[in-house]
Amino acid sequence: MSSTGVSSADVVVEGETIEALLAPGSSLAASAAESAERVIDATGRYVVPGGVDVHTHLALEMSPEATVSDSFETGTVAAAWGGTTTVVDFCNQTLGDDVRRSVDEQFAKAEGQCVIDYAFHMSMGDVTDSALKEMPTLIDEGITSFKYYMAYPGHVYSDDGQILRAMQVAAETGAMVMVHAENGIAIDVLREQAVERGNTDPVWHGRTRPSELEGEATHRAISLAAVAGAPVYIVHLSATEALAEVAAARDRGRNVFAETCPQYLYLSIEDHLTQEGIDGLTYVCSPPLREHHHSGSLWTGLRADDLSVVSTDHCPFCEKDKLLGIDDFRLTPNGLGSIEHRMDLIHQGVVDGHLSIARWVETCSTTPARLFGMYPKKGVIAPGSDADVVIYDPSRRHTLGVESHHMNSDISAWQGFDLTGAVETVMSRGQMVIDNGKFVGRTGRGRFVKRGLSDLLI
Ligand code: URP
Ligand code: ZN
Ligand code: ZN
Question: Is residue 434 one of the residues assigned to a domain?
Fold first, then answer.
């Protein structure tokens, strides 16, 4: 199975890499099977490249009160259960913080903890001269993409001038610029007005972050990138207005890319964020869940390649953390957990007729690897690639929820979701991590992936 479609092949793994793809029934395949240490019969299942999730937040201290509930160990175990074999997390520089310190801190948190391979983007929350000077060094070290925030004023927010300057450095160095595109200044006005009126329920998190302000910020990010001559990747795109901006820029032939996340494809403000108490707070993330009609456009955007990637923006919390916002939605830590469910949820999109199987592989594995400088080591089953291989049963049915998931959280945004299609076996660089439904991985075996530059830029 690949990003170009389905074919029959015997996959030969030698050590950490794919050695060959052989025609089933051929004499070469027969002799490879004879000399193999182990032969797995995957008849009736898909053999797909391990998933590549390029947007996760593991062990992130969101505020002094709330830390993401998954560590690098629990998060990568959960990812492996769901067929993801590479995650790209973030080194998090905050206001007044030093880039190098934040990089060292996140490397230390991951070191010796991961069950699958991992890499980092730089999340730059304070664009100073010294932070900009670090960019070329970080690129040499394999951190080749940089996230900037148009949201969260007073925290990690950057103004247009700061983002333009960072984009100018990216244009010179070939780095990828990632933008959280929401107009945080306008959103803060709406949030304050809502709370002054006594509108403190979770639904107001959504109502104070209107989709127009994501569309506007996306337009601005694309314009700034055009002026700087840099590529731009819009993270966690959730709204029709933002998608229209990305599609228009791509039609103009620009190096503009975007990801969406499962929550924007399946969950909505009406069905989820309108609930009171913890039931609504569970779904507080930014950008917020949107009205139903947005998800239809997002599936179309994925099909048409205006959206290139599905990542998770995995950022889980426990009930006690989410309850910080019980009297004021603004105090709830933003984010929800999906690292374990991405491959299954997007495969469900294949079952439901939204996407082709090839597009499932392309958006969840191949394109993220290509956009973020890991291809063809990751994202493809081909001779010479890392043997990151998932055996996927397309017909097994299962139900998601806290009783069965492996993410370290006592709540789930996916509680009760019935899906068709499940991971059976996961191999990471030739080593079994999930063997026919049993976890056999080892903490610390995951390696840092030193990334190159994107190979998808024109
Ligand atoms: O709600 C979210 N998305 N939390 C994670 C931080 C971010 O902006 O990606
Ligand atoms: Zn963000
Ligand atoms: Zn995020």
Answer: no
Instruction: Give me ligand 1 centre to Cα 313, in Å.
Output: 6
Q: Among residues of the chain, what percentage have pLDDT more than 70?
A: 100
Mean local confidence (pLDDT), 409-413: 98
Kindly state whether residue 431 falls inside one of the protein's structural domains: no
Residues with CB under 6 A from ligand 1: 57, 180, 236, 285-286, 313, 315, 334-335
Number of structural domains in the chain:
1
What is the domain range of residue 197? 49-371
Dump pLDDT digits (tens) for 287-341. Answer: 999 999 999 999 999 999 999 999 999 999 999 999 999 999 999 999 999 999 9
- What is the Å distance from ligand 3's center to 11 Cα? 35
Please report the pLDDT score of residue 387 as a whole number. Answer: 98
Domain assignment present for residue 42? The answer is: no
Q: What is the pLDDT of residue 2?
A: 81
In-domain check, residue 53: yes
Query: If you take atom 4 of ligand 1, which residue's CA is the nearest one?
Result: 335
Residue 157 bridge partners (DSSP): 149
337: left (phi over 0), alpha (psi -120 to 50) or beta: beta
Residue of 235, 334, 339, 409 with the most ligand 1 atoms within 8 Å of its CB, for mutation = 334
CB 85 within 8 A of CB 432: no
Give me ligand 1 centre to Cα 254, in Å.
Answer: 26
**Best of 273, 285, 317 to mutate for ligand 1, by most ligand atoms within 8 A of CB?**
285
Residue 405 three-state SS:
coil
Tell me: the pLDDT tens digits for 82-121?
Answer: 999 999 999 999 999 999 999 999 999 999 999 999 999 9
The answer to whether residues 283 and 305 touch, using CB atoms and an 8 Å cutoff, is no
